[in-house]
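re: ur question from earlier - yeah i can do the single chain one, its not a big deal. heres the input i used so u can compare w yours
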Amino acid sequence: MIGSNALLWVPANEQLTVAKYIYGIAHGLRTLTGGSIPTADQVKEMIAQFSSNADVGKWATLGTSIAALWGGVYPYFGGDTKLALQYLEALAAGLEACAAPYLQPKVVVTA
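and the output i got, formated as C-alpha cells:
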C-alpha cells in the first residue's frame, strides 16, 4: 500500500501535516464513490485539488502516486462498478489507517 509506511520517512515535525493531507485524500476518494466508476482523470483532478491547497511541499508526490495507482488499475475493471468502488474504498481505508496514528493526540506519561 502506498501510504502504509510513507509517514515513517517524513520528519517528525512534518508528520501531522502530511497525515492530514493523506487523510484528506482518503476523504476525497470517498466522494468519488457515488455510483459510477471515477475515471483516472477524475481521481487525478481531485488529488490535485488537495495538493494545491495543502502545504505539504515535496510530500505532494504521495498524492501523485495514488493517482498513478488508480490510473494503472482503472482499465482492468472493465466496467465492473462494484469491484472498482470496492477497490477505491479499500484504497481510502488504507490511507486513513496510515494517517490515523499520527492524527491521534500524543499522550505523555510522567512518573
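The chain is about 60% helix and 0% strand. not sure if urs matches, ping me
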